[in-house]
Amino acid sequence: MSRNRDSNCASRSARYVLYYVYITYILHI
C-alpha cells in the first residue's frame, strides 16, 4: 500500500514539474 501511494505521489510530482517546465517555456518565449 505504502509503495503504491509513494508511486502515485511521485507521478503527481512529475506531472507538476512537467507543467512547470511547460509554463516556463511558454513565458520565456
Protein architecture, described:
The protein is an all-alpha fold. The chain has one domain. It is built from 1 helix and no strands. It has one helix at residues 2-28. The protein is rod-shaped. 0% of the residues are buried. The model has no long low-confidence stretch (mean pLDDT 86).
What fraction of residues sit in β-strands?
Answer: under 5%
**Tally the helices: what do you get?**
1
What Rg do the Cα atoms give? 13 Å
Provide the helix percentage.
over 70%
Please summarize the sheet with the most strands. none
Write down the secondary-structure element order. H
**Silhouette:** rod-shaped
Low-confidence stretches: none
User: What structural class results from the helix and strand content?
Assistant: mainly alpha
What is the straight-line distance between the termini? Answer: 43 Å
Q: What is the β-strand count?
A: 0
What is the residue-mean pLDDT, rounded to a whole number?
86
Give the tally of structural domains: 1
Instruction: Kindly report the oligomeric state of this protein.
Output: single chain
